[in-house]
Amino acid sequence: MNIHEYQAKELLKSYGVKIPAQIVAETPEKAVEAAQQLAELTNTGVYVIKAQIHAGGRGKGGGVKIAKNMEEVYQLSDNIIGMQLVTPQTGPEGKKVNKVIVCEDSYYPGEGELSEIYLSVLLDRAKGCDVIMASTEGGMDIEEVAEATPEKIIKEWVDPKVGLQPFQSRKIAFELGLSGKAFKNMVKFINQIYAAYRGIDASQVEINPVLKASDDEIIAVDAKINLDDNALYRHKDFPALRDETEEDPLEVEASKSGLNYVKLDGNVGCMVNGAGLAMATMDMIKLSGGEPANFLDVGGGANAQTVEAGFRIILQDPNVKAILINIFGGIVRCDRVASGVVEAYKNIGEINVPIIVRLQGTNAEEGAKIIEESGLSVTSAIILKDAAERVKEALA
């Protein structure tokens, strides 16, 4: 589950991580009120206005601005709130900005030099370990750094059974070129970030940039956190952090029906039971000359209700020119799925795209018979090759 920057930073703050003072605002008027509150905490007179969407690269798209007085706070927040912000991670359609955060300026002058650092923690599935990644090239896209100067990326693997060891935090801080107070603060900062990563069951914590301020304080200027959906049951307050306006409406609707759905850009809708079979089905669609319009896993307990919900979601995509249902009857019986398809078809009413149903496994022949005798415009198939041919014919 993705969350907003301001939510991520508040979670990190609960683990002792130093963050800039911040207040969320949904209107320009609220943004001015937020800046006035921050003025009582800081003497810089400078405020950072940051768009809140589930995507990185906001600064490049005009979603991060600096305001030096209340008039600029109002004008800049008015420009950002409601804009369709396009970044490298949103695609050309962009995302609508519904709120901003007004932050204090952490780049205050002082005797020491300012520097920006990249830091993240995530799971290295190949090694079965957590990995801490850091770089002196903070503020830049880490992908660009990895491609152009991979030697500037520091990696430290952490065995989750043992946890982060003190020497590892010190090693990272040393390789970042820090010394004195900044070195000590960075060691503490890394320990806090890793504790947060484990404590909130995150799948990723990324801070870009981490700021070494002029007084050698280490500050999380930005933060991106992905929470592990499978661990949400351990954090009863986390579902409240979900912002459905940031998600695809069809994906939100699917999740409410217990379906695993991801919208894609193709022309063949697919409904499958099992993630592995879904991936194989999408490959088969491409081999038949089509492009998958979605990933939709109805799970092992597919029934008439889940099949109908899947139909309704797929049919809301105007790009869909055919629908392929590929079911392996292991836990679920194929005849039960076939009955669900027929019932769903009748409940939905007129469906103007070809439907191919491939049933294999328990009671597959009985299921195919139900489809064929239903009188509906549904084509059945038993083997994968037949289903591919039916898809190809439907798209011709």
Automatic annotation (TrEMBL):
Entry's family note: Belongs to the succinate/malate CoA ligase beta subunit family.
InterPro entries: ATP-grasp_succ-CoA_synth-type, ATP_grasp_subdomain_1, Succ-CoA_synthase_bsu_CS, SUCC_ACL_C, Succ_CoA_ligase-like_bsu, Succinyl-CoA_synth-like
Functional pathway: Carbohydrate metabolism; tricarboxylic acid cycle; succinate from succinyl-CoA (ligase route): step 1/1
Enzyme class: ligase
Main function: Succinyl-CoA synthetase functions in the citric acid cycle (TCA), coupling the hydrolysis of succinyl-CoA to the synthesis of either ATP or GTP and thus represents the only step of substrate-level phosphorylation in the TCA. The beta subunit provides nucleotide specificity of the enzyme and binds the substrate succinate, while the binding sites for coenzyme A and phosphate are found in the alpha subunit.
The organism's taxonomic lineage, starting at the top: Bacteria, Pseudomonadati, Bacteroidota, Cytophagia, Cytophagales
Chain positions recorded as ATP binding sites: K50, G57, R58, G59, S106, E116
Protein residues bound to substrate: N273, G330, I331, V332
The enzyme's E.C. designation: 6.2.1.5
Keywords: ATP-binding, Ligase, Magnesium, Metal-binding, Nucleotide-binding, Tricarboxylic acid cycle
Cofactor(s) this protein requires: Mg(2+)
Name of this protein: Succinate--CoA ligase [ADP-forming] subunit beta
Biological process according to GO: succinyl-CoA metabolic process; tricarboxylic acid cycle
Cofactor annotation comment: Binds 1 Mg(2+) ion per subunit.
Domain ATP-grasp fold succinyl-CoA synthetase-type: 2-210
